[in-house]
Amino acid sequence: MTSPPKVSRRRALALAAGALFATSLLPRSAALATAGARIPSRGFNLPGWLDRDGGPAAGAATLEKLRQAGFETIRLPVNGELVSSGGPATLRRIQNGIRDLVGLGFSVLLDMHPSGKLVAAFRNDPEAAGGQVLRAWTALRVVVADLPADWVYPELLNEPPMERTNWLALREQIAATLRATCPLHTLVWGPARFQGIWEIADTPPLADDNQIAAVHYYAPMAFTHQCENWDASPLARIANLPFPATRGTPAVSQVLSKLRATGDEEAANLVEDELSAPWTEARIAADFADVARWSATHGCPVMLNEFGVLNFCVDADSRESWVRAVRKAAEANHLAWTYWELDQGFGFIRSRQSVEGFDDSMIAALLGS
Predict the structure, then answer these.
(1) What is the mean pLDDT of residues 105-129?
(2) Which phi and psi (to 5°) does residue 85 adopt?
(3) Is the pTM of this model over 0.85?
(4) Beta strand pairing status for 336-339 and 152-155?
């Protein structure tokens, strides 16, 4: 897989068209490129496809509609265990999938997204787990090297599940592994352990001239993750919190009263802790101003490659208000962004295989003024 990417006439036309109007679609963060690279932005995450066997791809018509709406980047999670065990067939599947997306005019963030099993391995044997990630990138770098450096961006490891000092050492090893065959691709990395926006403050950039730091933002989680259904977290028992909100907001008082009426002090205390200061557009803007200062200090561009609100039990206006506030704060502080995610619990369309069921209000929150 070392031959030049084969691009059909249709895809070549799409690429040419994308090059002509990509600048008008990008926020101001595009100007923060290093080594002449573009900063991928105005995107969404597409999990559940190349990070598992038999995952469903998005339909071409759906992707074309999203591209026409103004989305220009797809963050594409891949599973290191699957890459290491799947052999050439898995690598071809990933390469062909990325080529299809680039052919439609999308930049692609190739996100090494560890499975729960690998996250557990980092807890039990960090050195062995790190070796597994390096082996995965050693296999995958052949795919990356054969894809255009100005359209495909390898992301070293999502939410690195280890202490900061251990991650900094592994980060340099992964970067060196990729640089051996991918000298021109822009490397994307995030801080340990959760890639949280607050964790970038004491994290130095890579020793590399072509990089983007990436952070996540889900604050306050009592709002963004209310009614989550995948573990026993008290977040699963919180519902109907609004945004913006303070402790004195009537809807918040009602939520607290209901939780305490059932004896759920854990969930009630979580809500109160997260609202110890008001959650408003101004609070969000201040968080992103902090990241902008880090970026300016280190001369390293930053992107927000995850943010979102579950749609399980939140009112639509609050959800849209939070998404718009975060997107605008990112853009105002020169951060590129990709939303988490397209068509699951945080999503904004009903199905990746249909052109129906697009949430126009959410799309406006992401792409509007």
Answers:
(1) 94
(2) -100, -20
(3) yes
(4) unpaired
